[in-house]
Amino acid sequence: MSSFDKIRTRIAPSPTGFLHLGTARTALFSWAYARHHGGEFVLRIEDTDVARSTQDSVEQIIQAMNWLGLSYDEGPIYQMQRLDRYQAVIDQLIAEGKAYRCYATPEELNEMREAQKARGEKTLYDRRWRPEPGKVLPTPPEGVKPVIRFANPIEGDVTWNDLVKGPITINNREIDDLIIARTDGVPTYNFAVVVDDWDMRISHVFRGDEHVNNTPWQINIFNALGAPLPQFGHLPIILGDDGLKLSKRRGAVSVMDYAANGYLPEAMLNYLARLGWSHGDDELFSAAQMVAWFDGSHLSRSPAQWDPAKLDWVNGHYVKTVDEGRLAALVVEQLAGKGLAVSAAQVQPKVGLFKDRCATVAALADWLSMYFAPVSPSAEDLATHVTEAVRPAIAHLAGKLSAVGDWNKGNIQQALKDTLAATGLKMPQLAVPVRVLVCGRAQTPSLDAVLEHFDQKKVLERLQAV
After folding, report:
1. From CA 263, how far away is CA 319, in angstroms rounded?
2. Residue 397 has pLDDT above 60, yes or no
3. Higher pLDDT, residue 465 or 75
4. φ/ψ of residue 68, rounded to 5
5. What span, in angstroms and rounded, lies between the C-alpha atoms of 366 and 316?
6. Does the pLDDT at position 178 exceed 70?
7. Shortest CA distance to 458 belongs to which of 438, 443, 442, 440?
8. What's the rounded Cα separation, in Å, for the pair 146 and 184?
9. CB contact set of 250 (below 8 Å; sequence gap of 6+)
10. Predicted TM-score (pTM) of this structure
11. Is residue 249 scored above 70 in pLDDT?
12. Can you point out the beta strands (E) in 134-257?
């Protein structure tokens, strides 16, 4: 495998906010590729944007990675702890004539760009401070701290065979002399990422489409350092409901928001995997299956569409199939968020009755909350179903249920039948108003099964409140 002794991938989020969905997908693909090939997966925190980076963001990123089950073999590694290393590489490049100090002020650069625009030229740095044979550089101005620029090759092309897009070629004349260190000495993204990937022996880089234009700079820096070149794979963007790119800046919710809203990590992983990758017609699969299949092929070149309804379908599948003890514990967390303190032992017997109706754990908790908190039927349901004509039947049922000694489904069913026989009503005429009063909604699973899980006294109180 060329200059690498093993496959190593990485995810390198910037801690300027939560782990959003696009980065989570990139992390998933990078993780799966490394696991498929028996390699290693690295977590790196790119925190050189000091003004916007926060420790809270770091913690949220790690929490989201752990929730998704994307375990990493190395890290988290922080760029701001590697400044001495970056400076050493910059000093090396300057000594070798591959980088140089640039004293151009922002005002001078703006004038340069405006003049280029006026001439109809592409706005590129004019290399005024780049040392060249026979060129006399001006005296560095006093009091101006220089940036460091990479001396990008002027001739030739940069070509790579992208793992997703195929062969890509960009002429060096289209590429600027990149700033690789700011005036305060902090390296820029395109430089730091190269040094990091070199030092961490990263063999394969999966990242978003927006990085395609950065890749020529990075390849040229790798070559200038004599460093082995990783393979690059640029993933297509994810589009939101409105057809525009999902991104932090456009309000894409974080991975952990989905956790809070009752989505399961295996469902989120399964759904993210299908955004830009496929294995035949398989829609539902485990993380282990994905690892077995994910060899880097079958990655789409087209943008993926975020589909909340499809995510709900996938999540609903997992809600139906996961262990009910685990489901009950998650419902307890959801109910705690509603201010209801209940135990898993109270919840678990009820889970199986409702889970097939639910796309999320939050929806399941909403169903089960009727057992632990007062219900508030809508005025419309009360007016439509709890009519004067049916009130005597409800009173009759309450009397029958109060006489039930052993509160179970069979005895509840018998009380319903006795009431129907005594009043001449059909089951829907009685069951729907009972649902409205006891459950706060007009539709539920089988009424006797639902009532069985209530405390008998609570059912009577709600029936007698009419």
Report:
1. 9
2. yes
3. 75
4. -75, -15
5. 15
6. yes
7. 438
8. 9
9. 240, 244
10. 0.92
11. no
12. 147-150, 157-162, 166-171, 179-181, 204-208, 231-235, 238-239
CA gap 308, 332 in Å, rounded: 25
**Between the CA atoms of 357, 450, 374 and 400, what dihedral angle is there, to the nearest 10 degrees?**
160
Q: Which two tokens stand for residue 238?
A: 């994810």
Please state, in angstroms and rounded to a whole number, the distance separating the CA atoms of residues 378 and 344: 29
Task: Indicate the burial class of 398 (C-beta count within 10 angstroms; 0-12, 13-18, 19 or more).
Answer: buried
| Annotated catalytic residue, options 248, 310, 338, 409 | 248
Place of tokens 């009043």: 423
Residues in the chain: 466
DSSP β-ladder status, 231-235 and 238-239: unpaired
98 is catalytic: no
Residue for token digits 């897009």? 165
Closest C-alpha among 197, 169, 191 to residue 179: 191
Structure tokens at 133: 């044979």
Q: Residue 409 phi/psi, 5° resolution?
A: -60, -45
CA distance 209 to 73: 26
How many angstroms separate the CA atoms of 332 and 397, rounded?
A: 32
Q: Which long-range contacts (CB under 8 A, 24 or more apart) does 345-353 make?
A: 346/371, 346/372, 348/324, 349/453, 350/453, 351/324, 351/327, 352/324, 353/445, 353/449, 353/450, 353/453
CA distance 409 to 406: 9
The arithmetic mean of pLDDT across residues 77-101, rounded, is 97
| Token reading at 184 | 């305060």
The continuous run of DSSP H or E covering 102 comes out as strand 99-102
